[in-house]
Specification:
This protein has 373 residues and is α/β, with parallel strands linked by helices. It has 16 helices and 13 strands.
Length: 373
């Protein structure tokens, strides 16, 4: 009888983001006749609820950055469960997992959705992250990235051999089946008759929601007739929520913070334009999801974004970090409804190439190769 490859997924999962979603897809979707699935993470929250019945769940709290006992805990988990491949995502999980795997004689795999080089932190913290990341990379068997530019960073800046890095793009997968109910969200949030700008993500500095909130008054000054019609809805939660609410206060009811939402399909369907104002990104799932349902997108011109969006073809790009540039491109997009519809149709065509089947198949092949080496 063919031996199953045993995989341990390791993730911090303090919140639910793109990493948690892709790991959830893998844990739920990998064929159990070929793979034994284990997961080490916090036993609470949406991620836990999604995966707990599809794996052997091993409680692990990675919220403390300096709790080195987690290395021993992970090593014990790997040894007791005869793990073949330990797959982590996120800088903290990567560090603990790689060191534990090296001690346990297990192949460590890391999904790099955002290089540490792009972390939006102070210089001292960045220096510490880079040092810890370098220690983890030396002990990592192979890497998965979600975009070509990330592979280039790992090879050219981090000195990782190209043969150890595989690019597997994220899939454009929306929960809730094939349909959506935009009318419910429109009624709930008071959006009827408005031009709806939607933004989605963790309320953290990296996501650049402050740039969006600074761009809106500029739009009001340059194109008051457009500004009068808009409503900006921001879905998500995070440490910057209070600061963002203060920044949005002068805009009154033009901005609505909805908190975390699990009805992403319906939320995006209610939008006229999806906005991605991030300072840094890998290959953003929220962007792919908006494109998948044919929404025109306005996004920062980041490397991973430009692998999905071609300016003037299937969306509009603006200079990352520049509220003035964002306001100008937003005005142009809102002034050309037929062009916006064309962008949306082209975006849906692009997203149709990022389906779940090749994502799952590529990971299956990757695990079989890593587990049998």
């Amino acid at each position: 009888m063919k031996r199953r490859i045993k995989i341990l997924f390791v993730i911090e999962n303090a919140c639910y983001g793109g990493g948690e979603k892709t790991f959830s897809l893998l844990i739920r979707g990998l064929p159990k006749e070929e793979f034994g699935i284990y997961c080490a993470a916090l036993p609470s929250g949406r991620f836990y609820e999604e995966v707990k019945d599809h794996c052997r769940f091993l409680p692990l709290d990675l919220s403390c950055r300096l709790n080195l006992r987690n290395i021993g805990r992970l090593r014990t988990m790997m040894a007791e469960n005869d793990i073949d491949v330990a797959h982590s995502q996120g800088a903290r999980a990567d560090f603990f997992c790689a060191l534990a795997a090296a001690k346990a004689g297990v192949r460590a795999v890391s999904t790099v959705a955002m290089p540490v080089d792009g972390f939006d932190v102070g210089w001292l913290r960045k220096k510490i992250y880079l040092a810890l990341n370098a220690a983890a990379e030396k002990r990592t068997h192979s890497f998965i990235t979600v975009a070509d530019y990330i592979k280039q960073v790992l090879v050219e800046r981090h000195g990782i051999p190209g043969g150890k890095v595989e690019v597997i793009p994220n899939p454009a997968v929306l929960d809730g089946g094939d349909g959506f109910d935009a009318s419910r969200v429109i009624a709930e949030l008071g959006l009827r008759g408005r031009i709806v700008l939607a933004a989605l993500g963790r309320l953290e500095n990296q996501k650049g929601f402050d740039i969006l909130l600074e761009a809106l008054p500029l739009l009001g000054k340059s194109r008051p007739e457009l500004f009068e019609k808009i409503k900006c809805v921001i879905a998500g939660s995070g440490s910057q929520e209070a600061a963002l609410r203060r920044l949005a206060a002068p805009l009154g009811d033009k901005v609505v913070f909805t908190g975390f939402r699990d009805d992403v399909r319906d939320f995006l369907a209610a939008a006229d334009v999806f906005v991605l104002p991030s300072r840094s990104e890998g290959q953003p799932l929220a962007l792919l999801e908006a494109m998948a349902i044919g929404k025109p997108v306005l996004a920062a011109d980041l490397p991973g974004v430009k692998e999905l969006v071609t300016d003037g073809d299937n969306g509009a790009l603006f200079k990352a970090g520049d509220p003035t540039a964002m306001a100008e491109r937003l005005a142009a997009l809102l002034s050309d409804p037929s062009g916006a519809r064309r962008f949306g149709a082209a975006a849906a065509g692009t997203a149709s190439r990022f389906t779940l089947e090749p994502f799952m198949h590529a990971h299956e092949e990757f695990y079989l190769k890593a587990g049998n080496q």
